[in-house]
Amino acid sequence: MNTEQQLFDETPLRRFEYDDSVVLAADVGPETDASVDVVDGTVIVVADDEQREQDVPEGARAFINNGVLTIELSDEEDI
């Protein structure tokens, strides 16, 4: 099952629900030089000299691959 939401109040976000986790994915663009980190329950994305933050449950993991930001949440925690 997947639904659409928004990340950082403007970036379209897809939500994929699995038995033991929820995966959120957002296209930040392949030409964007972006990095991501999770610090104290906050996903921090820096792209094109701009920083965006989003609160997430503790234990969330995030990474960027080919311009797609992926946030993995366990136990169906909600963002």
Concise synopsis of the structure shown:
With 79 residues, this protein is mainly beta. It is built from no helices and eight strands. The chain has strands at residues 2-7, 11-17, 21-27, 34-39, 42-47, 50-55, 61-65, 68-74.
Q: How does the SSE layout of this entry go?
A:
Layout: E1 2-7, E2 11-17, E3 21-27, E4 34-39, E5 42-47, E6 50-55, E7 61-65, E8 68-74
Antiparallel strand pairs: 1-2, 2-3, 3-8, 4-5, 5-6, 7-8
Task: Please provide a written account of the structure.
This protein has 79 residues and is mainly β. Helix content is 0%, strand content 63%. The protein contains no helices and eight strands. The chain has strands at 2-7, 11-17, 21-27, 34-39, 42-47, 50-55, 61-65, 68-74. The strands form two sheets. A five-stranded antiparallel sheet has the order 1-2-3-8-7, with no helix packed on it. Strand 2 and strand 3 (21-27) form a beta hairpin. The model has no long low-confidence stretch (mean pLDDT 82).
Uncertain residue segments: none
% residues in beta strands? over 45%
Mass-distribution shape: globular
Q: Kindly provide the radius of gyration, computed on alpha-carbon positions and rounded to a whole number of angstroms.
A: 12 Å
The largest β sheet comes out as: 5 strands, antiparallel
- The tally of strands reads 8
Distance between the termini: 16 Å
Please state the structural category.
Answer: mainly beta
